[in-house]
Amino acid sequence: MLSKFLSTQDSVYVQPRMGVCCIDEMRHRLLHLKESRFPVIGTLTIDSYTRTRHLKELEDALKKGLPINGFPIHSYPVSAIKEKITALQSRSFFIQLRHGTPQPEKLFEHMVECGLTLTEGGPVSYCLPYGRIPLKTCIKSWETACKNLSQAGEQAHLESFAGCMMGQMGHPALLNALSILEGLFFHQADLEDISLSYAQGYNSTQDLAAVSALKRLANQYFPKNLKWHIVIYTFMGLYPKTHEGHQAILLESLHLATFSKAKRLIVKTHEEATKIPSFESNFEALSFASEKQSSIGSIPLDEDEEEDEIIFTQSQKIIESVLDLGENIGNCLSMAFEKGLLDVSFCLHPDNAKKTSTYIDDKGYIRWSNTGNLNLDSIKKEKKVCSSRLMKDLSYNRNRFDKNL
Amino acid sequence: MRNRKAIVCTTPSDSHTWNLVILDLFLQEKDFNVVNLGSNTPYREIIETSKNFDPDLIVVSSLNGHAFQEGLELIRQMHSDQRMQFPPLVIGGRASTDPENEIFISKKLKARGFDETFFTVSSLHSFDAYLSQKFHTPLLSHAV
Known about the structure:
The structure holds two protein chains of two kinds.
Chain A: H1 2-7, E1 13-15, H2 23-35, E2 42-45, H3 48-51, H4 55-64, H5 78-84, E3 95-98, H6 105-113, E4 118-121, H7 135-150, E5 157-160, H8 172-188, E6 193-199, H9 204-221, E7 227-233, H10 243-259, E8 264-266, H11 279-291, H12 293-296, H13 305-323, H14 329-339, E9 356-360, E10 366-371, H15 387-394, H16 396-402
Parallel strand pairs in A: 1-8, 2-3, 3-4, 4-5, 5-6, 6-7, 7-8
Antiparallel strand pairs in A: 9-10
Helix pairs in contact in A: 6-7, 7-14, 8-9, 8-13, 9-10, 9-13, 10-16
Chain B: E1 4-9, H1 18-29, E2 32-36, H2 43-53, E3 57-62, H3 67-80, E4 89-93, H4 99-112, E5 116-118, H5 123-135
Parallel strand pairs in B: 1-2, 1-3, 3-4, 4-5
Helix pairs in contact in B: 3-4
């Protein structure tokens, strides 16, 4: 339903990351968003104890009154959640559960019971960047989790986090390939409404090319009955420290979302560099992103069709090499990582091949320095990554947006 | 002269990885063979890898504020494993949001068995100097 609804909307729907322990406060914040004039999607972010399934420690922390950094969805009765949170949903106000859980079977079962049907993640995107749970285990978990979510029927919606792997330095071709593969995985596990993410990089012309390529890939690989839309994320790496720098990078991500005709934008706040954002800073970012939408369309954004084609072709080659491995997408993913046909640059997970690497060039484009075992022979490079260069690249956007101010 | 060997790791609660990626590359540039144990490193994994790999140095990088408790626990588990002698351990990153607290934590960790700590802003620079002194590796001029 989310994709269908958004397809009727002209605005880019803005969305925060947001989760607090107290159910009344959580309701208050969601209601505030719902009653604002923004085109907005509500978010319910769960806490880290719930995420890691340390429910005993959560109980202890709650008893001691220790700070909990999100919504402890298992700690309230289903009836309370339905009454105070789920009841806020309407035909035009959606609530997405955000979590970061590598094994979400029980979480998805519980959320559907509570009447919440939108969430995010993926067998690869929520396994590799965090912790050390074997990929095979995550894939099995997500097969079950997706089937649990699909019980919500046409209300069920799952967003793939694959466009955001590691937060930065991901090559667009690899990120796009992972997005398509996770999408196909979701579909094979009975889901019919999904979204694909893309995180803002270092040059919005390259980002625009990447999103354009992603849409073409989705049209090519997804069956007609799979509904989908694109969600852009404001930069997730080392964030500008100044308020002006934050507004500038947020504006650039809005520019990208508008020109690429993405349907949602997950925003960052000016507090991102130093702490967990307050509701005020979130509201400010949402307000800014809503208000600037009409004027941003009049500012041109350069296109690079050649880069679009390059990214599209590379993604295709990667996807094909994975799909060639069999019928079951989960098995394909597992085998592909074993063979290095999928390889997330700078990801230290034990199941990642760790042979590929990237760098940022003079224009701010992400480029391959090493393509490892990826099916990209024609552009194989073997440049060794230098630690000082990588440190500089990691700070690229912070420097770009803070330095002029 | 054979290449030196190092283990790069963090503590069980810490999910940060860019610090481990940078340290891995940094040590390789100083001609270390590096085993990188990745995020959320279990104590046993550090201990078992050390036994098998026989490194010249174990480098623990901690950014989530748990360096004190978890650094101490690592040392405790190592010392209680009587089957071998362990190589020098160093720990760095960010131990606290309070700089005075970091000084206190550094002192305690060194007293318990860490060879050196690198919790200051210019920690990579200090680490570079430490490696130079201990292993006679050339100083990398770009270390800031």
